[in-house]
Fold NAD(P)H-quinone oxidoreductase chain 4, chloroplastic.
Amino acid sequence: MGVLGIGLYGSNEPTFNFETSANQSYPVALEIIFYIGFLIAFAVKSPIIPLQTWLPDTHGEAHYSTCMLLAGILLKMGAYGLVRINMELLPHAHSIFSPWLMILGAIQIIYAASTSLGQRNLKKRIAYSSVSHMGFIIIGIGSISDMGLNGAILQIISHGFIGAALFFLAGTSYDRIRLLYLEEMGGMAIPIPKIFTMFSILSMASLALPGMSGFIAELIVFFGIITSQKYLLMTKILITFVTAIGMILTPIYSLSIVTPDVLRIQAFYCTNSYFL
């Protein structure tokens, strides 16, 4: 941030007031240089592919309180930085890079959702789901429309709460049954039914069940893509189609966590004499 301040301070009328700096014009080359630098920094923090590899391992090994802090606050600061610095302070460079952000966001949704399905560690699966949901934020920021930006900000807030809550439940379940791998956790709904119930509800919220905040955020992002004046109709259709595929994959990896427990509950009650 200090380097950006020095560069912008010397390129125009000297000021460190953010609003004043946002209303000034800077050389496009200077904007592009700083945009790329901040994009890389925020891409690591958010994270954005291909700079996301640190996140699943961190979530898989860290204590759940650390995971909650990462998912709920720290990662979302990267997305906020994209809005506050890259989009607001460097608008001309953002207009140049926004199509690439849209493409990157669509790829991230598909990649992270499909990768999450193959994770056996519960916390790593939730971590990859967070990476997938970040794709909607990137698309909203890259849409260059007020509605898309509103959807991205709502997704930041929504998934900040949902992701932190999922990691909390994953940690509390580990404290009780000392298991994190899904193939070993079968039947957790019977010994810890309250945690399982809350986990099921939050999984529905994470997969954007209609009526929940995730659904509203993603719907607004879709409207932001459609109403954007920057892109051609075919581009909008293609991005929407790819994003919709990611939304189909999301229930698969979310519900696959809780479905085995539902089947085990049915088997448990069917084999008890009082149920007959």
Observations:
- The chain is about 75% helix and 0% strand.
- The mean pLDDT is 80.
